Amino acid sequence: MTTEKPAGKTARKAAADTAEQVHAQVEMAKTVGTANLDALAEASAHAIEGAQACIAEMADYARTSVARNFDLMERLSAVKTPQEFMAIQIEEGKESVNRAVAQTTRINRIVSDSMIKASAPLNARANETVETFLKPNTA
């Protein structure tokens, strides 16, 4: 009496095992893909928040700049001497540069913060995905 299994049973068992492995891999890919899309949605939300904050900051800067320019025109139209005109121009030029530098710094901070927030979920997903797919192969 032989203990060897018939070839048909072995082939069916191998096919069932392969089908099970493929099913498990498809399920893992679905899970990872869903998590990746969730991370992308979260990153996009942070990027949109940053863009909205930049737009609001620039709109506020434009609004205050227009008001300052009207004020400057009033001050310049009331001057009595060319020296007074030049003094106001020089003062306003310095202040304008300082405001532009401060505004650029604020915009850079908003962009930097939003990029950090937006990249965090993507970075986390990349790390988790690498772990998910490398772990079975290194064990």
Short description:
By secondary structure, this protein is mainly alpha-helical. The chain has helices spanning 7-77, 82-138. The chain has 2 helices and no strands.
What does this protein structure show overall?
The structure is a single chain. By secondary structure, the protein is an all-alpha fold. It contains two helices and no strands. The chain has helices spanning 7-77, 82-138. Helix 1 packs antiparallel against helix 2. The longest helix is centred in the first third of the chain and has 71 residues, at 7-77. It is rod-shaped, with a radius of gyration of 32 Å. The mean pLDDT is 89.
Q: For the report, how would you describe the main beta sheet?
A: none
How many domains, in number, for the residues?
Answer: 1
Class of secondary structure makeup:
mainly alpha
Spell the H/E element sequence: HH
Q: Poorly predicted ranges (pLDDT <50, ≥5 residues)?
A: none
Average pLDDT over all residues: 89
Q: Distance between termini?
A: 39 Å
Q: Tell me the Rg in angstroms.
A: 32 Å
Principal-axis shape: rod-shaped
Assess the beta-strand content as a share of residues: under 5%
DSSP, total strands: 0
The helix content, as a percent range, equals over 70%
Structure annotation, total helices: 2
Key terms:
139 residues, mainly alpha
Layout of secondary structure:
Layout: H1 7-77, H2 82-138
Helix pairs in contact: 1-2
